[in-house]
Amino acid sequence: MHPILVQLGPITIRYYGLMYVIAITLGLFILSREVKRKKMICGLTGKLVSTDDLLDLLLWMIPAAIIGARIYYVAFQWGYYGSHPADIVKIWQGGLAIHGGVIVGILAVFVFARWKKIAFWALTDSISLSLILGQAIGRIGNLMNGDAYGVPTTLPWGIHFPPNSPAGMAYPGQATHPSMIYEMILNLIIFAFLWRLRKRGYKDGFLTSLYFILYSIDRSIVSFTRGDSLWLGPIRAAHVISAILITGFLLFIIFRHLYERSTPETPLPDRNDAQEDR
After folding, report:
1. How would you classify residue 39: left for phi > 0, otherwise alpha for psi between -120 and 50, otherwise beta?
2. Distance between CA 180 and CA 212 in Å, rounded?
3. What is the per-residue pLDDT across 83-100, written as a single tens digit (0 to 9) for each?
4. SS3 86
């Protein structure tokens, strides 16, 4: 594994960045498809949400998520970054905490939805599909970079990372759990599950809540194998945040009755299906 895909003189293409580009491109495609299927309205214009609206959303959400992910990580590693402030901006070396990215990213989506007058929970339900798939793709970048690594293992699928990688420096000469692969697989399972549910007619906010619950379970399981966990005293920060998210969104589902279908008899039709039925 090597973090650099191509280097031509001063031009460097890293796997980390490439995975971000692929994830954003696929995410925009899925988001655009879902928004069209739901016929979502932009109250600011009185028209259907357009591709331009979604590009505006990305301009809000992606920088906010990256900044939030970095701030979250740096805050838990301040013992190092306080002495090496120049390293704070070096996100290509790893160090983006997904919980921080998701929390700040969702806040950016909320502000955007209020500005454009778009139904917030309907929008986040669509975003959750793109988000979990993007997280799965991003783990390929972690694999090539050697970050988001696991603790040492003697299992046959343990990976020996290069000595100059984050995993190699943390555990020199030792095979570690491929924690990023574990999480990628679980993320893809969650994506497939949410994808099957998207047309079932559940109330707005249900898919978003399931995303947070299922990903929190996913992350809690994988965190037991992670060698680079952030800690709150003797407890992994991921376990604390995951417990809060699971509890909060379970209560949200129950009190808002999101498990009920707004269209109980049939799933929501796809626009293409509707055209074929005419």
Report:
1. left
2. 18
3. 888 888 887 666 788 889
4. helix
